Amino acid sequence: VTQPADASGNAITEKLPTVLIQTSYNGGADSFAGSVGAALGGADPYIVQHGYVTVVVDVRGTGQSQGVWEAFGATEQSDYGNVVNWVTQQSWSNGVIGLYGVSYLGITAVITAAQDHPAVKAAFPIVPIGDGYRDIVFTGGQINPTFIPIWLGLVSVLGLTDPTAVTDPQTGIPIVLSHILNVTAFQLPTILNGLAGTPATAYDGDFWAIRSPLENDGKINVPTFVVGGLHDLFQRSEPTTYEEIKTHATTKLLIGPWTHLEAATGSGLPVDGVPVLDHIELQWFDQYLKGMSVGADQLPNVTQYVSGYGHYVTSTDWPNPQAQAQKLYLHGDKSLSTTAPVAGEASNSVAQEPLNGLCSISTDQWTAGITGYIPLPCQTDDSVAELTDVVYETAPMAEDTYLNGPIEADVWMSTTASDAGLSVRVDDVSGSTVTALTNGLQTASLRAVDPTRSRYLNGLMIQPWHPFTQASVQAVGSGNAVLVPVEIFTTSGMIAKGHSLRIAIGASGLPHG
After folding, report:
1. pLDDT (0 to 100) of residue 83
2. Using 50, 70 and 90 to split pLDDT, how confident is the model at 150?
3. Where is 100: in which H helix or E strand?
4. Which segments of 431-499 are extended strands (E)?
C-alpha cells in the first residue's frame, strides 16, 4: 500500500480513491518503485503524487503470496474480487477503485472489471490479452516456442526472489519453497502437455476459455481505456477488447507502433498530440474516479499509429467506419492484383525450413521486444525472412493505399507431407526495402472455420474464426489440394504511392510456432 504524503512526508489522512494493481512479478519489492517497476507492478510515483493510494498485490502463488499459481485460473480470478472487497474496508479508502496495469497486470484489470464490483469505477489496461489460445500460446494451432517459455521462466524466477526470505525467514522461506514446487505442478506440465499435444492443452477448450478475457469483456460496464501495439504480443485482440466494451461503456483505444515492452512505457510519446501514458492515465482516473471534468470523455475514441504514414490518426470507431474489404488474387507469375486468375496458371512451391523467420519482426514481437534492443536490420526488413518464401507483389500503387483492420489469406495448397503450416507475411515494398507490416500462421489440418464467429465486411470474410478443437481437425494428406484460410493479425498501415504491397507465403514461422 503506497499513500500520498504531505509536504512533511506524513501520510495524508483523508480517504482517497485507490488504484489497484495485481501482478505476478513480485511487485511488492521496494526495488520496483518507479516507471520500469510500474510495468512489473511496483507503485507508480506519478499517480500517487496526484492523490491516489496505490495497492499492489502479488497474485496467488507468485512474488510474496502463498498458494499455487495457475495463471488466471478460477481460484486466482475469485481472489480479485476479494482484494477489491478488502480495499473498500481500509481506513484510507473512500470506496472508489480504478484498475491499472501492463500485460499480466492489464489482464487482471480487465478480468476484475468484468466482475462488475460496485466499487470499481474505471480501468486502464495496457496491452492486455484477449484470447489466450489464439493470441499467443497456440497461434494458428502451433505452440509458441519463444515467449511462453521466457514468460513462465520469468514468473518462476521472480517468485524465488522474495525479499522476506531474508527479512522474515520464518514466513519467506516456506513461500519460496512452495514456489519451487509449483514449477513442477503448473509451469513445466503446461509446457510439456502442449508439446506432447495433450488435447486439454493443445486444443481450444475450457482450459483456455477461462484464461481468455474476451469471453467476459462484454460484462464490463465501467469506462475503460485500452492501450495496444501494432507488434504487441496481443496485437490480435486489443482492438477487439475495445470493440466488446464500446457498446455498453465509455471506451477508448490507443494503438502505437510498439512491441510489448515499448507499449508498457508508451515509447515515443508525446507526439502528434498524443500525451505520455502517465498523463492519459491520470486524466482518465481524475475524470472517472474523482469526478473531475478534465476532458477524458472527449478524447478520440480510437487513436492508431499508421505504419508507412509515420503518424497517429484518430477515428470515431474501430473497425474504421470508412473501411471496405477488397479482394486481391495471387497469380502463377507471382503478381498480386484485383484480376481473378485463369485456368492453367502455374503453381509455386516452397520448402519446409523449420528455422524460417528466426530473424524477422516476429522474433522481436514474440520475445516481447527484447531482441529489438539489438539493432539488426532483419528485425524490421522482411527480405531475409522471405528469401525462401513464395513472394507475390502488386504493381506500384497509383495512389496511397490505407490498410486498417484484420486481413484474411485464402490459400489453396498441397503438401508432400501429411500436414503443413502456412506462414503469410504482409509487407510494404519500396525498392529493395521490405518493411514488415503484419503476418499470420495457420496449421492446415486445423483449417476449419466457424462462419458464425468470423468477421465479414461488405460480404467478404476478412477474419476467419478457427475452432481449434480436436473435433474440428481435417486431414490434409500428401498431394491433396486444400483451401486454408489464414488469419493475419490486424494492422494499420499505408502503402504509399509508388510502393508495392507484398504477400509472402512460406511453410513455417519459427517465432510464432
Report:
1. 98
2. confident
3. strand 93-102
4. 433-443, 455-457, 460-463, 482-495
